[in-house]
Specification:
With about 290 residues, this protein is of the alpha/beta class. About 40% of the residues lie in helices and about 10% in strands. It contains 10 helices and 8 strands. It has an 8-stranded parallel β-sheet. Helix 1 packs across helix 2 (about 75-90), helix 2 (about 75-90) runs parallel beside helix 3 (about 105-110) and helix 9 packs parallel to helix 10.
Length: about 290
Amino acid sequence: MSTLRGRGTVRGLPEWDRCAVMGVVNVTPDSFSDGGRWFDTTAAIKHGLDLVAQGADLIDVGGESTRPGASRVDASEELRRVVPVVRGLAAEGVTVSVDTMRARVAEEAVSAGAALVNDVSGGLADPDMVPVVAAAGAPFVVMHWRGFSESMNSRAVYGDVVAEVVAELRERMDAVIEGGIAPERIVIDPGLGFAKEAAHDLALVARLDALRALGRPLLVAASRKRFLGHVLAGEGAAPPPARERDAATAAVSALAAHAGAWAVRVHEVRATADAVRVARAVEGAA
């Protein structure tokens, strides 16, 4: 089976003939990658539409920073940030994902037009999340997660990171399915950068085949993350700023697409859109 045929499809979402590109719109004042540039609703909607014009297939809208050490915002503020942007993009025909750990935000975002719920906690942060998503019949991203941003760095302890992430994701998938979300609506995400050191992230990128063996479409979200900064800096040097990691991100996008990822989540779309199309052309020539 070629990686193209083996990527999988997600019920309720469009089908693409290659690895899809998920563009990121952070409606936050404290994002690690873009520092609040799209905090205004109008600017965020325009940015989402610009990403689509640059080649994004779907747009992930989030209103709460999940960078290491970040504090949580309250639900009303997250709703204020996210829902108008979701509504505005959906009204323009954009396939929208909502990046949230709160069931209430997920529910209102889906009502506003979001087609996918991307919960970095895989439903662990809010016990109402799985029932709400199941009732809505929405596709759901189950990410590998070991705790909130304030404490996740202390949880980056593994004997065999690939085996442990696969086992923990399998356990979480089973719980989500038991909670009523149909298996064909589930996407899995290894959670690069979440409770992981650089070596852990690299090991997971090297073994995406082990994650794909879980049997569900795979989302890879490496964009601008710390492990890329460490790779670019080299031993003992300071990592470059987040926005100087886009070429490295595109390299991971190409590797992920070649390994059969369903989608890659990125802040800078154009280079990754080119990367996944080249990967698709190579697959077609094999």
